[in-house]
Amino acid sequence: MSKAAKTIDDLVYSSEMERITNRGKSVDYLISEVKTEWAYNLQDRKPAPAYLENGNIRPTNLDMASIMSTLADRNAIINIPQYQSRRAKTKKEGEWVISDKNRHGKLIGLNADKEVFSFSARIVDQNVINTADNEIGAYRNFLLTDLEGELYKGLDSIQVKLTEDEERFMRKNGVSIGDNIPIKNFVTPQLWSSFLGAPYAKLKALETRLEDEAKYYRTVASELKENLDIRGVRNSFKHKSKTEVGESKPIKVHAFKAEMDIPMHGEYPSVSHTIGGYQTARKIAKELTYNVLPRLRFNSRTVELAFDKHGKEGLNTPGWDVPDIESEFIIPGKRTEWNKMDLGNDVLLRFRTYEKTERVNALS
């Protein structure tokens, strides 16, 4: 992640925040800017080497999030030799999985859940045949962590052909043992302090704005489809029907949720009441929902994971002044209690921890 010089106080009163909160203004350049600020550059890292000690592997402190982000940025082809699903197995209509072994394909993105610390890799899985379209390849997510942010034991390993620069970095820093890179952390613990900094606040504010924008254009597209009686177009925001073919069980897991309240105002650009307008609204909503937001959310959730594990108890403090954290804050008209940071200019950062019930594979 590149460094930003602004303080939180600078940010909340900046022209950037005004643009983010104004629905009538485009934030395209800010999306590119934030992606660059949060890009992981392996060449900037100086990880500790991995080594063998008395026959035991001592893994590098290079984190998996950094490695996977680097691979996702170049859409690397990856192979997963063995994988045990954490969820109950499902079967999607019109699809045939030819093998559960060696799931492979282009890495097109990284996903993160908004409540539990579940991170996954999204690939175009070449083991899946779409029988309806007679095509090979379908989107699939494979967990990188369990539901609480620890490296997922059901993921045997990930195989990938490194670039020359990546290989040179691994050799120079000694992070591999043979052809393997042993890893112990999904995110680096030091990332916790970013939760209290301006770059994260900017990222979170932009994420909030784009969620609002995606919701608006999804609603517009849905209304236009119904009002114009548009037929023969699959609803892109509904998944194929799937049937659970394995047994599941409920478990309680730790959850952490962070929300940023920003003073949104103005109106988004309208689209025409035509098929063309419907297509425009649908395209904007799809791009934000499936491409832009998952990328930003992966970055924000890595920070929140590090903060939850290493910073929220107040045992650590960053090297700069931060707003006070107030507890037992309740949104008017609601009942849920939050921790709150008042960042100024009507910008609030709220976070809370709680237990959440998740259904998982009964055999796991």
What is the chain-wise order of helices and strands?
HHHEEHEEEEEEEHHEEHEEE
Which percent band covers the strand fraction? 25-35%
Total of domains: 2
Mean pLDDT: 90
Quote the distance from N terminus to C terminus: 35 Å
- Indicate the structural class: alpha+beta
Strand segment count: 14
Helix content: 25-40%
* Spans of at least 5 consecutive residues with low confidence: 1-5
How many helical stretches? Answer: 7
Oligomer: single chain
Shape: globular
Main sheet? 6 strands, antiparallel
Question: What is Rg?
Answer: 22 Å
Can you describe this structure?
The chain is built from seven helices and 14 strands. Helix 6 packs antiparallel against helix 7 (275-310). It folds into two domains: 8-37 and 191-247 and 264-319, no CATH class; 42-188, no CATH class. Helices cover 30% and strands 26% of the residues. The model is unreliable at 1-5 (pLDDT under 50).
